[in-house]
Amino acid sequence: MDVKIIYSYMYNRQLNYHRSKEQVYKRFQDLEGSCAELNELTDRFLLDSIYKMEEFAGEKIPREEIRIFIVDRDRGGSFHEPVTLQYDDDQKYMFAELLHLVGHHLVPDRGALGEAKINLVVESVLRALPLDFSRQIARLHKNQQGRYAEYFRIDPEQYDLSEKSLLEHFPKKEPKEEKRPAWEYDGED
């Protein structure tokens, strides 16, 4: 799997249509240089984290390439299609949010239940990393509570991150038998 981080002036311009070209360009000029810590985190941990998320979910991301657009905008937030990550001063939070966005491609459920499953997987992966992501995890949960408060409270203390619990939420699937053309079955009983 190939991961590409993309800084696109035109995409930033499109998402900041309420600003003048000069304002967008001024903010865009510093964007790539401001994401040094995020670049380091993605180089060191992103692919391993995605593989771990796929293992928990029992699904594979149906893409050979993940394109991540980094934008600097003050209206709206990040979204998962295409993977668009809003700039934040806390680069570790950006990394945690990036894993959450990638999780949307693994968990087909929508609404609060799907978000809870994604949070469960992302939190377990972040806790397994050699860095402390506890503040960033709490911030992710806080953002999710605001979006899905009408369904139920998503609270990190409610999660049981044991392997048994993860298997209950994401049961292992048997590998699918590959379909072969009829002529390949000749001679088999």
User: Widest sheet: strand order?
Assistant: 1-2-4-3
Shape: globular
User: Gyration radius, to the nearest Å?
Assistant: 19 Å
The helix-strand sequence is EHHHHEEEHHHH
Count up the helices: 8
Low-pLDDT stretches: 149-159
Subunit arrangement of the protein: single chain
Q: Please give the largest β-sheet.
A: 4 strands, mixed
Taken as a percent bin, the fraction of beta residues is 5-15%
Amino- and carboxy-terminal Cα gap: 38 Å
Mean pLDDT: 79
Query: Helix/strand-derived class?
Result: alpha/beta
> Could you tell me the number of beta strands?
4
Q: Helix amount, in percent?
A: 40-55%
What does this structure look like?
The protein is built from eight helices and four strands, in the order βααααβββαααα. The protein is α/β, with parallel strands linked by helices and 189 residues long. The protein is globular, with a radius of gyration of 19 Å. About 6% of the residues have low confidence.
Layout of helices and strands:
Blueprint: E1 2-6, H1 9-15, H2 21-29, H3 31-34, H4 36-57, E2 65-71, E3 79-80, E4 83-86, H5 91-103, H6 111-128, H7 134-148, H8 163-169
Parallel strand pairs: 1-2, 2-4
Antiparallel strand pairs: 3-4
Properties at a glance:
four-stranded mixed beta sheet; alpha/beta; 189 residues
Give a brief outline of the structure:
50% of the residues lie in helices and 10% in strands. The chain is of the alpha/beta class and 189 residues long.
